[in-house]
Specification:
Layout lengths: L1 H23 L17 H26 L15 H12 L10 E7 L4 H6 L10 E8 L2 E8 L4 E7 L10 H9 L5 H9 L7 E8 L11 E8 L10 E10 L6
Antiparallel strand pairs: 1-2, 2-3, 3-4, 5-6, 6-7
Length: 253
């Protein structure tokens, strides 16, 4: 009696599994079922598939909007500078009189935040406060600190860095620092005396910093070197006992 009463339950369970299989196996990109040829459940299935497909399209469109940095515009007073705004900063500085003869290296560019009271009083839909950029540039061994107003296309503040230290290294500085040791005869001799081929040597500017009062006022980088002979993981083969101090401005060891 017990075995007979459980058979209808097993039959219904089997039908449910088949229904779930056919419902979930149909991809949203496939054509909808023809409800005149299939069972009555296909109407609901088509409605679900259409909704899922619509959500997929909306998510793709939303992702494309976020990835299109060329047309991105700020929506909040504290939104970071957009790509267009950064390019405008470069254009403004290119025509700025102190930089017309020689353009400096731009080490830092970010939003110069508006006064806090302007942010507190701003509501969604209001015009944004004036957008300005904070810039640190380096030229002629001097650090220039500037504020650029994007609305008026003017440099509204420009002072030489009154503090100790230098701006961060940029890519060009690091690329130059790792090439300078190979122009020094002492470095080349030291490498060859170790039985290492110069063609197998890779160097990296691993430590920029301040190295004592005798080196005050100079942009120095400690360069460490490695051998990549027979391996792609050259960090496992440091050239021991050899650290090169490079003057990035004078481009010498």
């Amino acid at each position: 009696m017990g075995a007979t009463s459980i058979l209808p339950f097993l039959f219904l369970l089997f039908l449910s599994l088949i229904l779930i299989f056919f419902t979930t196996s149909w991809h949203p990109s496939q054509l909808s079922l023809n409800c005149s040829q299939y069972s009555s459940w296909c109407t609901s299935k088509n409605r679900i598939q259409a909704k899922v497909a619509s959500l997929v399209v909306e998510n793709q469109q939303e992702g494309q909007r976020h990835l299109d940095h060329l047309t991105e515009t700020p929506r909040h007073p504290l939104d970071p500078l957009t790509l267009q705004e950064i390019e405008k900063v470069q254009t403004i500085l290119s025509s700025y009189l102190p930089f017309t003869s020689s353009f400096p290296s731009i080490n830092t560019v970010y939003l110069y935040e508006p006064d806090k009271s302007l942010v507190w009083n701003w509501n969604k839909g209001d015009p944004l406060p004036p957008r300005q950029a904070f810039v640190i540039a380096y030229m002629d061994q001097k650090s220039h600190v500037l504020v650029v107003d994007l609305g008026s296309s003017q440099v509204v503040s420009h002072v030489l860095n009154p503090h100790l230290g230098f701006p961060i290294l940029i890519t060009e500085d690091m690329e130059s620092a790792v090439k300078i040791p190979f122009k020094d005869a002492r470095f080349n001799k030291s490498i060859m005396d170790r039985g290492v081929k110069l063609s197998d040597v890779i160097c990296g500017p691993l430590a920029a910093g301040w190295y004592g009062p005798n080196e005050e006022g100079r942009r120095l980088v400690k360069v460490e070197c490695f051998s990549n002979q027979g391996t792609v993981n050259f960090y496992m083969r440091p050239i021991e006992g050899l650290i090169v101090t490079v003057d990035v401005d004078k481009k010498e060891v």
